[in-house]
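Supplementary Note 3. Input sequence used for the single-chain structure prediction.
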Amino acid sequence: MAEIAVLFVIKKIGIAVAGDTLKLAIPLFAKKTELKKVELVTALPVNMRQIKKELEIINAFLKELGMNGYKGEVVETWIRQVRRLAHDMEDVVDEFMYVVGKNKHKKSWACVKKIIKKPKPLFSLDEIATKADMINTELVELSKRLDRWTRPLSSGIYVPPTNYNSEQQLYLPGYDYSINDNELVGIDKNRQTLIESLRLEDCSLRIIAVWGMGGLGKSTLVNDIYKNEAIVSNFNCHAWLCISQSSKMHDIWQNMLKELCGEDNRGVDAENMNNRELRLELAKILRQKRYLIILDDVWLAADLLKIREVLVDNGLRKQSNNYNKN
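The predicted structure, written as discrete structure tokens, is reproduced below.
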């Protein structure tokens, strides 16, 4: 989802503007004779904090979109623009951390390298400050743009759909994910545990729960495995479904059937089936197959039990679950 990209860059900015990092940057800020845009460079930490605050508001808004199920071409386009801007800002933060770390001794640089990817190409502090200032301006315009174009839609077009969720926008099968394997850190142990569980020869129904607080990277971890052809090829069919708080069971079963039938090129009219027909058709399809089904963003155990009704005990189902503990 777009929330993942936004949340990720919020955390990176937090590291970049932390006291310890800025202390390392002081010598660079002090080299005013080497800087072409002194004012912009001096204002860089302030600009980054402002960007962080704006992204926090945007992240909260994206969550509301997901929970209330709002849709519309304008909003979806706006979400895509948010995602692109978040990736641009992530690059700026990486460049800043790289320049700061490179300027210090090896011990400091080793710490910096653990949290960033080496930017390509490398930029000067002047260029980094200029890009951050442009992103700050664009964020302000982005907020105005949404307000300007959604206000006329409030009477009828901007309405809740049956199964829309902002998380679903990013984590869909076939989506071109921006995070590469070499950019993922700290997940090796959990990744290996999941891979070993998926490779078991036992074909009985197996439920694997990936749980934790929001923002820990559960969906990112599961997707890293889901897009691994060597693993997915062990299954006859597979599907990725987003189960949000606003999702209805009819829509979940319908989407599951569409994905599974799409792989088999079967002409099943899922749109016109009732709950009973959907459940029977799903059971029929899965009965003779080894299958992998990802259930992302599961909030309630009751939803999991209902979905379990159609899962025939001859395959494997993997579930990624958002977990909130009160």
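The CA atoms of residues 163 and 251 lie 6 Å apart. The chain is about 55% helix and 5% strand.
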